[in-house]
Amino acid sequence: MKEHDMQITLSTTKKEKPQADQLEFGKHFTDHMFIMDYTQGQGWHDPRIVPYQPLSLEPSAMIFHYGQSVFEGLKAYSTPEDEVILFRPEKNFQRLNSSNGRLCIPDVDVDFALKALKTLISVDKEWIPQEEGTSLYIRPFIIATEPYLGVSPSHKYQFIIIMSPVGSYYKEGIHPVKIAVESAFTRAVNGGTGEAKTGGNYASSLKAQEVSEKMGYAQVLWLDGVEKKYIEEVGSMNVFFKINGEIITPALNGSILSGITRNSIIELLKHWNLPVTERRISMEEVHEAHKSGLLEEAFGTGTAAVISPIGEFLWNGEEMVVQSGETGELSKKLYDTLTGIQRGKIADELNWTTKV
Ligand code: COI
């Protein structure tokens, strides 16, 4: 698929843009979207940018029945020099293809997807909010569109990119949350779809989230599905602990999502010569560290929130407060550095940003 194949149909009307203080995560959408179709035998075809609009799909389209879909999330930022930059976008399209592999969806061309995204951003450039803590959240996704009720990989797909101006995930920017360690429900097991970014993983997490919210906790901490001992993720994020100086994140094991923020933090910590380890870590170990005063910090990481400090864990009925419920020094430094690089305010020593 070549760039010149792309058709652009501009919207004849322009939607009103929300004020920066009205931006909620994922509520407002820009004027345009990208779509490309896949038909078996023909491959990906008809890439186009069109006005943001509803989709027309048959009720029998396979996405509605068996959930064959994948998605990504990344952000575009406006720099103080009024340039537009993306943070490691090729990683998102590479991961989209890994998820595609798991869901039997055909790969997309990473270079073409990136070019298409840059064209879409250029068309809707005026939608990128400027204020501190804001960005343009980008949601690429692929759905199975073949009208068929048999359980098999679809022969037709649509690859779509929509974009949403967003404020910070939490109003305060970086704000400690209370977490309940999950015991009844499981997010994923090795051999399942846990390491793919597919809607079903998020649908299956909703019940645990609902139960924990009723108990006054913002998110759940997911343990492994077999022994219910080892820590996997927190809410829809990866998780890190600082114990007695060592920074630990669960090693990727097939059921944990390979987060781009997770990977960037590991690389940043190594760049700072701080001890970071990817390994198995049990809730028992975190509890012991807390008891002996060695649990210094805990935080979730993801594109949406960047860093989300954990102020308290509820485990087996015991409330374990971390950092007196305040944001730790490392969490703050990582948040400031990552968002600084993402917004073009801090030198990009690791070469992570790409200009649009
Ligand atoms: C992220 O942290 O970016 C996520 O994956 C959450 C998203 C599903 C809203």
From TrEMBL:
Name listed for the protein in its UniProt record: Branched-chain-amino-acid aminotransferase
Keywords annotated in UniProt: Amino-acid biosynthesis, Aminotransferase, Branched-chain amino acid biosynthesis, Pyridoxal phosphate, Transferase
NCBIfam families the record matches: ilvE_II (TIGR01123), PRK13357.1 (NF009897)
PTM-bearing positions, type N6-(pyridoxal phosphate)lysine: 197
Pathway the protein takes part in: Amino-acid biosynthesis; L-isoleucine biosynthesis; L-isoleucine from 2-oxobutanoate: step 4/4; Amino-acid biosynthesis; L-leucine biosynthesis; L-leucine from 3-methyl-2-oxobutanoate: step 4/4; Amino-acid biosynthesis; L-valine biosynthesis; L-valine from pyruvate: step 4/4
Keyword Lipid biosynthesis annotated: no
Obligatory cofactor(s): pyridoxal 5'-phosphate
GO molecular function, one term: L-valine-2-oxoglutarate transaminase activity
E.C. no: 2.6.1.42
A biological process term (GO) from this entry: L-valine biosynthetic process
Family recorded in the similarity comment: Belongs to the class-IV pyridoxal-phosphate-dependent aminotransferase family.
Gene3D superfamilies documented for this protein: 3.30.470.10, D-amino Acid Aminotransferase, subunit A, domain 2
Presence of keyword rRNA-binding: no
Top class in the EC scheme: transferase
InterPro entries cross-referenced by the UniProt entry: Aminotrans_IV, Aminotrans_IV_CS, Aminotransferase-like, B_amino_transII, BCAT-like_C, BCAT-like_N, BCAT_family
Annotated catalysed reactions: L-isoleucine + 2-oxoglutarate = (S)-3-methyl-2-oxopentanoate + L-glutamate; L-valine + 2-oxoglutarate = 3-methyl-2-oxobutanoate + L-glutamate; L-leucine + 2-oxoglutarate = 4-methyl-2-oxopentanoate + L-glutamate
